[in-house]
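Run log // design_07
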């Protein structure tokens, strides 16, 4: 069946004004939708299709990845790409009773970076360099807090890119921020902390992670300047977890005044902060604001991750820990799992030292800015009544709808139309939030963003119409 894709893609034209990738995507999407390419059909490999169409392989890789992200294709390592076994096809009659489409075609729920852009070749080179240069003893367990090579490379990177104060021996390598946060919670509990202030709303997993360490969660509301320091001051918390560069999920950038307020609170209370700097490398309209940690390195644990710059699958993150907590955090790491995969740590060190991360970020910033601008233009056109927040940084935007909108009904209607969206009420701890949709845009092509927002707006309007009809 490998010829089907080629038969379907009889023509790509360099003169059409439409990119080659887009032409391939559009034709395949069409062929899958109308049933020319059947469910489960195997497609040509990216190499074969590229050769047969006379285009470069990355063009085909990107087209396939986009179609996979939209749910049309299944791509598995080492296997030929196939048409999704659950995709809806117009040549097959759908039973009238089934009103749900076969899974979202545009999924705004993901807040991951563009996974099709993972720098596979550069990463392979770093892995090869790591394996060929690692002495045998480096294949042993080693120190749980991470390899010297990576901690040195990260100290340089974080100082240069995030303005951090980061001696290599204060860095603990963790398997993603999620593990780092758990270690910090355990170390805080050990140091006698009982109550931890967290931003409300926040990442859904955060309150549970804090409670699992035996700590009490103190939710502090957030506004467009970040955490409400006045409420923090009135609380009895002994530590605070913040996302200053790009509050998750509201997208607020912590103002200078609030940053000063948090620092004053830390000093007054002799408290500790955990700074979650998850997507700070992506700032579109001005230079990134430096990390808060640089202003009070003795009281702030800094947490970073490769999940947004490269891919969550790496499970690589890092903590920069104040001296007073270093021993307990490193001990927690040792007790938890004896450390993070060391071959990957060496590969990442090589990747950083050779400037590959800088190169990748330069490229991706442009891609994400274009996707963000496409999202904003589509929202302005189709949902002009919405207010959009959090767009200056990161990989997602918040769309605040009028108070009268029923967010759950909108989510359900959008899903029925093939568009998956997350809602901010899923992230609340105590305080009510206005009806707000969270739209991750980094892993979706511009054409799909346009289609998705148009469909989402239609879902919003259909939901309102139904609600009005029910009220009369
Ligand atoms: C607020 C926040 N912090 C950190 C992360 C990254 O976590 P990890 O490094 O464990 O992948 C995420 C991922 O979605 C997040 O939403």
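design_07 sequence
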């Amino acid at each position: 069946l490998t010829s089907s894709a080629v038969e379907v893609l009889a023509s790509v034209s360099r003169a059409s004004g439409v990119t080659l990738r887009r032409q391939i995507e559009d034709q395949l999407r069409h062929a899958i939708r109308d049933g020319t390419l059947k469910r489960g059909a195997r497609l040509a490999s990216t190499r074969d299709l590229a050769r047969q169409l006379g285009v470069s392989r990355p063009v085909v890789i990107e087209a396939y990845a986009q179609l996979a992200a939209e749910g049309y294709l299944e791509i598995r390592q080492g296997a030929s790409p196939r048409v999704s076994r659950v995709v809806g096809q117009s040549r097959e009659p759908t039973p009238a009773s089934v009103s749900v489409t076969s899974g979202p075609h545009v999924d705004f729920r993901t807040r991951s970076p563009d996974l099709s852009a993972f720098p596979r070749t550069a990463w392979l080179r770093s892995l090869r360099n790591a394996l060929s240069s690692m002495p045998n003893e480096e294949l042993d367990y080693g120190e749980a807090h991470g390899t010297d090579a990576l901690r040195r490379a990260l100290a340089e990177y974080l100082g240069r890119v995030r303005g951090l104060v980061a001696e290599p021996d204060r860095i603990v390598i963790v398997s993603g921020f999620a593990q780092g946060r758990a270690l910090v919670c355990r170390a805080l509990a050990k140091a006698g902390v009982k109550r931890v202030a967290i931003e409300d709303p926040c990442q859904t997993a955060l309150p549970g992670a804090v409670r699992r360490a035996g700590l009490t969660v103190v939710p502090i509301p957030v506004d467009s300047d970040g955490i409400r320091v006045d409420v923090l001051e009135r609380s009895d918390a002994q530590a605070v977890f913040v996302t200053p560069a790009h509050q998750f999920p509201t997208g607020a950038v912590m103002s200078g005044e609030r940053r000063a307020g948090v620092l004053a609170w830390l000093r007054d209370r002799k408290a500790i902060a955990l700074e979650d700097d998850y997507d700070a490398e992506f700032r579109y309209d001005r230079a990134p604001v430096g990390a808060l940690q640089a202003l009070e390195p003795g009281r702030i644990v800094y947490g970073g991750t490769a999940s947004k710059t490269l891919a969550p699958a790496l499970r690589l993150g890092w903590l920069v820990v104040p001296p007073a907590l270093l021993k307990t955090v490193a001990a927690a790491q040792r007790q938890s799992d004896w450390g993070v995969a060391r071959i990957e740590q060496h590969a990442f060190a090589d990747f950083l030292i050779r400037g590959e991360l800088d190169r990748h970020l330069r490229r991706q910033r442009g891609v994400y800015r274009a996707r963000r601008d496409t999202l904003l233009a589509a929202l302005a056109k189709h949902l002009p009544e919405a207010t959009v927040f959090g767009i200056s940084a990161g990989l997602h935007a918040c769309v605040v709808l009028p108070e009268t909108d029923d967010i759950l009904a909108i989510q359900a209607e959008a899903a029925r139309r093939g568009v998956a969206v997350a809602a901010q009420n899923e992230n609340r701890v105590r305080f009510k939030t206005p009806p707000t949709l969270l739209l991750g845009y980094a892993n979706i092509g511009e054409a799909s963003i346009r289609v998705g927002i148009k469909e989402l707006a239609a879902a919003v309007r259909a939901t309102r119409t139904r609600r009005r009809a029910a009220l009369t």
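The chain is about 45% helix and 15% strand.
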